[in-house]
Design a protein that fits this description.
Family: Belongs to the RecX family.
Keywords: Cytoplasm
Main location: cytoplasm
Largest sheet: none
Helix content: over 70%
Number of helices: 10
Radius of gyration: 25 Å
InterPro entries: RecX_HTH_1st (IPR053926), RecX_HTH_2nd (IPR053924), Regulatory_RecX (IPR003783), WH-like_DNA-bd_sf (IPR036388)
Number of strands: 0
GO cellular component, one term: cytoplasm
Structural class: mainly alpha
Order of helices and strands: HHHHHHHHHH
């Protein structure tokens, strides 16, 4: 409702206005946070949960802010901000998943298993991850194989083995390469193919 000049407000009304002010501040802070890179809905919820207590400490009416039951009001406050962000297309777990997969394949190579684990850790629903992974413009077996191959070649080159290295030395580094690729989330069968092909060329 619209306020009038010199209007007396009840404690509840003052708290409601303070919550409204916090909501606006949090929304604007989140927009700035999202401008750095995309985030999942869960990441934004976690961010808002942290920021609300910072805003509370900096509140002009510290006494009133201290008296407010944040545990009671926090879920509603966060849900309102999340709904507004989603409505304005600032957060979208499908778009976030596409972005993260492309980023990882390009800059931090990893396989399908590791990508799925990371997306789940960031709170993206299985239904969404399955849908995005099924989109071959985002992720495909061919793209995963090329990524694994490039990574394997880079790792092997960094071992700096000389021609004529003893078989036991080659075996030792082969095992290291194998472990590195598996730890990046590539499947057993893919790693076997990549490593065998690479060593055959060597």
């Amino acid at each position: 409702r619209q306020l009038k000049r010199n209007q007396a407000l009840s404690p509840i009304e003052v708290q409601d206005l303070l919550l409204l002010s916090w909501q606006e501040d949090l929304y604007n802070q989140t927009i700035r946070y999202l401008s750095l890179r995309p985030h999942s809905q869960k990441e934004i919820r976690d961010y808002l949960s942290r920021r609300i207590f910072v805003i509370k400490r900096k509140s002009l009416d510290a006494k009133l802010a201290e008296e407010m039951d944040l545990e009671k009001n926090l879920p509603t406050l966060i849900n309102k901000i999340i709904d507004r962000l989603k409505g304005n297309k600032f957060i979208d777990d499908r778009e976030f998943s596409r972005w993260l997969i492309r980023q990882r394949l390009t800059y931090r190579p990893r396989g399908k298993r590791a990508l799925l684990i990371e997306l789940r850790q960031k709170g993206v629903d299985k239904e969404v991850t399955d849908e995005v992974m099924a989109d071959e413009s985002v992720f495909s077996a061919e793209a995963e194989e090329k990524t694994a191959q490039k990574l394997a070649e880079k790792i092997w080159k960094n071992f700096k083995l000389t021609k004529g290295s003893k078989p036991e030395i080659i075996y030792k580094y082969r095992q290291r390469l194998w472990q590195r690729l598996i730890s990046r989330g590539f499947s057993y069968n893919l790693v076997k193919t990549i490593v065998d092909d690479l060593l055959h060329k060597e």
